[in-house]
Design goal:
Oligomer: single chain
Order of helices and strands: EHEEHEHEEEHEH
Helix content: 40-55%
CATH class of the largest domain: Alpha Beta
Number of strands: 8
CATH topology of the largest domain: Rossmann fold
Structural class: alpha/beta
Number of domains: 2
Distance between the termini: 17 Å
Strand content: 15-25%
Length: 189
Amino acid sequence: MNFLVVYGTTEGQTRKICQFVADRIKVSSHNADLVDATDPTLGTLKLRGYDGVVVAGSLHVGKFQTSIEEFVKARHQTLNGMRTMFLPVSLSAASHDADDIKGLADCTGRFVNETGWKPGETHNVAGAFRYTQYDFFKRWGMKLIAYQKGVATDTSRDLELTDWVALTRVTDGFVATVEAVGKAVAAGA
């Protein structure tokens, strides 16, 4: 089976997450093409050659990357006819605060409404504090956010909040669903 994993990233954690997803799909003896949404060849890629599509974007200041939004808007009709999974990546996904969780749900809902895409599955994935990549002001602001949320504030190293065990479970479940659909289609043919 063939899978496409498309991502938008700002600081690199979403790319790392999607590389993990693609590698996990390959463990199941399937093909997984990993494509950055800014790649100019993405516009000519034939989605119908894929059995499943994973789309991931990181949420910053209430919005996903423009490249992810443009890809999904342009291809939403095709995506709506396929097995798909959306992975919104956000620091809020690691939170237990009701306002953070609601904010993430609102941003994801807005994205889905604005693009016309109806993902088959949506799973929130926690991102990372990339302290070592931030300029002085962003590092200070992110440290304040981390402090307010009770998260480590050592800015000399990055802090990864991604739950790799949960991401393994989500990925394996998606692959199993796509496999089941493929077998059902083949049996009915």
